[in-house]
# Entry
Amino acid sequence: KCSARIHDQMGLNISGGSDSVVPQAKIIGSSPSGSSARQGNMFVFSMSYQPEFCYQHRKDGYPGCLNPNPIWKSSLTIHGLWPEFTDGSWPSTCSDEKFSQQTVDDIGLNRFELYWPNVKVRSGEDGYMKFWDHEWTKHGTCTGLRQDAYFKTALDNALATPDIVGDNYGESVKKVDLIQGFVDASSASQSSTGGAANMFVAVCDHSGKYLSEVRVCLDMDDNGFPAGVCE
# Structure
């Protein structure tokens, strides 16, 4: 059984069904310093359910959890777009290209704050860019994409959250129905996602009871961009 909560309220309960075949990954080491060559042959796109994250960290007093955006109750947000290999391993930190805050400013800070939020630090304070810095340094540098292209690609292809999440807040739904909802919502969106249900997985918290994330396996094209759900 897998469910989700927000602060001291019960949230979405997910039950029944089995997880997908998206592999667990292991670090295989980094590429030579300065190299930006593409690594990996697929992506794992991970979306977070902020209500559960905030519940798990309810004692930490994170600013974004104390004053959450209401949309997060019914819409998952981006955790990361991660290049991986089909054998389950992943590349990590493939170049020494530094994260640039200007990239975030050029794309639009408001897009990041809504769809790829850092709830741990208050906007404008030291460390606010650390989350996106981490995602670029560890994962983005291994895509072969320019920094602006990496972030914009993730934002443009974020998984659409199905109505079943918001409509059943505080209730229970079957995991198979949740996953099918993501398949249908992604297929209907303009993103490069959509596809077979066995390429989506609901990830639970450490107790195995509460929904934490939804992940999908995406193919990677020859230029390092997502190319639809893995076949």
